[in-house]
Specification:
binds zinc ion; globular; 23% strand; GIY-YIG endonuclease; six-stranded parallel sheet; 23 helices; Rossmann fold
């Protein structure tokens, strides 16, 4: 028998199956779903066994070198890998690799152990020896005495450090055969020990109770449909999840709870640990590899039946899965931005389907795609329309920045916002100033009338290219020169927008020099623990103003924050992305959720040049349904998801003309293939065009966008993409192709 192995390599040459011999000592150990070390060319790589065959495809078959750990993927996880490989057009090896922690894949997984010493001789004999030893070896006698008192066994290090004992004395006792030394596994746990005093469970509201009952009653279904739990901020979604988890555990099953990486704060995980104790394992990228591996093993052994984690926790080795919760399902951090470019929400739905488990997607602002599915019967819709407790949603005030300009105010702060900031500062209350993370993509806007340049075909914002001094659509490559006067009002105040957090922080410090200001964005939180540090300092009152990106909008409770300012809603509204409207609405809702988390009433000020845009107008009153109706009409008209599936193909490389030539050749090949196959009718090709971020780290980037009729099977789509990439191999080693199915970011 020979093993069929796939390897975790994205390059074209390695996408297939490879046959390896099984050495005698590993016979019976290697199973479908095992991770193995194999010779590959001149290297050794981690591979995964996907099957067995009697007839190898080459004459000289090499042997598997070793087994990497004793994990064997279940049939269900193998099926999930196959789905990912097909749906996201990646290699099977890349997909399977996701199911293992990095330390296992790299062969660096190590179990941490501790030395334990115990008495190797009868107690009476040892007691007798102490008297003899006392004169010749007083330290050994002392060590032995301590062990007899506190024993029968203890960590070697503790005995060594005990008063009167030394490491030499303990070593001597072991050498003489008086003590026995063994190794015991120690778990590196990321969760601090939680006191066992269980808080009394809150009484459920009637709405929460209804949601819990509906979900619990579907736990015993053979193929339950996913739920979409649409609950306003602070409506008590987490309590709903916990009650359902209790029912899941009572059935002897397990649960996975996904939360966006950024809201995986200690508060969040402690909440689950307080309720479920040692049954909870935590998995996210801020753990050390050792902690991650140990938590993963606790799950694999069934010692922890609840996994709380970020995106990749969807692959946790949970047996007997009963429930998957995806909290804040609209969050774009669920999308992995490197291959395989999967979306954890969609993988969650597929894993739940394969495991016959219940999937619950929760959000205050569901993604348009999910809400569409809920309205069309694919998901079941549950609603929590009220906040728990007496707190009111804060009032939202929209400031028209065009009027500010007319009044002669050219600063980034409107009069209303700067007055409100001063007012809170004198009252000793806190302020959050909010900015869009993606301030770096530059758009062009008229400050007098608020008109922004958009593509006439694709209805996305045009992107400013300084080098050519033009504005371009990066979906279809439409371009025009930068206008010198506004085409709408003839005004001369055309501005390029794209200010970052650092710049705003500087402006705040200038305008409110006596305030204590801090900043939270990807730059200031790169270091491990930095995020938590800023949060706790701000919470403690060390700062008056927090300037930040999306990061501050999520899952944080600051009771003393009574003012939230959105400095420029336009940076979000004018993203060169069809989701710009949706992102803006989500942003306003989340930001508002940060103010008024206590009895003090909260206030939100949104500055914009487009106060009449539906995302802002409806965001002001938290009218999700109204927003959805507007947005779905736009999507339908532009044939954007859910009315199409998008596939973004990005070609990048050092030489601009080579990148462009290759992108053109891919488009040609795609057109020919689509024309020749009947089942591919209904695929539209946009581009090639330069990406909105046309140059990143010295690499030129061009993109091709496919709009695919949702009735076309993912299988046919995958065959088309993989077929084209095989038929048109990259012309040189430095030209790379990325395929992104259901892209979250189109920059
Ligand atoms: Zn204008
Ligand atoms: Zn266009």
């Amino acid at each position: 028998m020979y093993a069929e192995v796939v390897v975790d390599v994205p390059s074209e040459s390695a996408k297939g199956l490879f046959h390896y011999g099984i050495p005698a000592e590993l016979e019976g150990e290697i199973k479908v779903g095992s991770a193995v070390l194999v010779p590959f060319g001149r290297r050794e790589l981690t591979g995964y066994v996907v099957g067995f065959t009697e007839t190898p495809d080459v004459a000289r078959v090499k042997d598997i070198r070793a087994l990497r750990g004793d994990t064997v993927l279940s049939e269900q996880m193998m099926a999930l890998s196959a789905w990912i490989s097909e749906y996201y057009s990646c290699s099977l090896g890349e997909a399977i690799a996701q199911m293992f922690p990095a330390s296992v894949r790299r062969g660096r997984a190590k179990v941490k152990t501790e030395s334990i010493v115990e008495l190797a001789i009868p107690r009476e004999k040892a007691e007798a020896m102490i008297d003899v030893m006392e004169k010749k070896a007083p330290r050994q006698a002392q060590a032995l005495k301590i062990l007899l008192e506190k024993g029968p066994k203890m960590p070697r290090r503790r005995l060594t450090n005990a008063p009167g004992s030394t490491s030499g004395a303990v070593r001597a006792l072991i050498q003489k055969g008086i003590l026995n030394e063994t190794q015991k596994e120690v778990l590196r746990s990321p969760i601090k020990a939680i006191s066992n005093t269980r808080k009394p469970m809150p009484v459920l509201t009637r709405e929460q109770d209804k949601a819990v009952t509906a979900i619990v009653s579907s736990l015993d279904n053979v193929s339950p449909a996913p739920f979409l739990l649409h609950g306003v901020t602070a409506s008590g979604k987490t309590e709903v999840y916990m009650r359902v988890i209790e029912a899941v555990l009572a059935r002897g099953k397990s649960a996975i709870v996904l939360v966006p990486e950024i809201s995986l704060t200690p508060q969040m995980t402690e909440g689950f640990s307080e309720r479920f104790g040692q049954d909870v394992a935590v998995l996210h990228s801020r753990l050390s590899p050792g902690e991650r591996y140990d938590e993963w093993r606790r799950v694999e052994r069934g010692d922890a039946r609840i996994v709380v984690g970020a995106r990749s926790a969807i692959f946790a080795p949970v047996e007997n899965l009963g429930l998957i919760v995806v909290d804040e399902e609209h969050e774009n951090s669920y999308k992995q931005e490197e291959s395989p470019r999967y979306h954890a929400r969609d993988v969650a739905c597929e894993r739940a389907r394969i495991s016959k488990a219940v999937c619950v997607l929760g959000s205050a602002t569901p993604s348009v795609e999910s809400y569409y599915k809920a309205l069309h019967g694919e998901y079941r819709l549950l609603e929590l329309p009220h906040r728990v407790g007496m707190w009111e949603m804060p009032t939202v005030e929209v400031v028209d920045m065009r009027e500010e300009l007319a009044k002669g105010n050219r600063s980034i702060f409107s009069q209303a916002l700067s007055e409100a900031i001063s007012d809170r500062l004198t009252r000793g209350e806190q302020i959050i100033l909010f900015l869009n993370r993606r301030g770096y993509s530059t758009f062009v806007l008229c400050r007098e009338c608020g008109y922004s340049m958009r593509c006439p075909e694709c209805d996305v914002a045009l992107t400013y290219h300084a080098a050519e001094s033009n504005i371009r659509c990066h979906y279809c490559d439409y371009e025009e020169p930068v206008p010198s006067v506004c085409p709408n009002c003839g005004g001369r105040y055309i501005r390029y927008f794209g200010a970052g957090t650092q710049k705003i922080e500087g402006e705040v410090k200038r305008a409110f020099s006596h305030a204590r200001t801090c900043r939270m964005d990807t730059d200031t939180t790169r270091r491990k623990g930095a995020h938590e540090e800023i949060v706790s300092k701000f919470k403690r009152g060390d700062y008056d103003i927090l300037v930040g990106t999306q990061m501050v909008a999520k899952g944080l409770d600051f009771p003393n924050v009574t003012l939230v300012g959105v400095v420029s809603a336009d940076t979000c509204l004018n993203l060169p992305d069809y989701k710009a409207g949706e992102r803006t609405f989500q942003l306003l809702t989340q930001v508002a959720g940060r103010a008024g988390r206590s009895k003090k009433s909260g206030h939100v000020i949104v500055q914009t040049y487009s106060p009449e845009h539906y995302a802002i107008e409806l965001g002001k009153t938290y009218d999700y349904r109204g927003f959805y109706d507007e947005e779905i009409a736009c999507r339908s008209e532009g044939l954007y998801p859910p009315f199409s599936r998008l596939v973004l193909i990005v070609v990048s490389g050092k030489g601009l003309s080579a990148v462009e030539r290759y992108a053109i050749s891919l488009v040609r090949a795609l057109r020919a293939q689509i024309k020749s196959e009947k089942q591919l009718k209904g695929i539209r090709i946009l581009g090639p065009a330069p990406c909105a971020l046309a140059r990143v780290k010295g690499m030129h980037r061009w993109q091709i966008l496919l709009k695919i009729d949702p009735r076309i099977k993912p299988h046919d789509q995958d065959k088309l993409i993989k077929g084209i990439l095989e038929a048109c191999p990259s012309p040189s080693y430095d030209i790379m192709v990325q395929v992104d199915v259901d892209p979250e970011s189109m920059l």
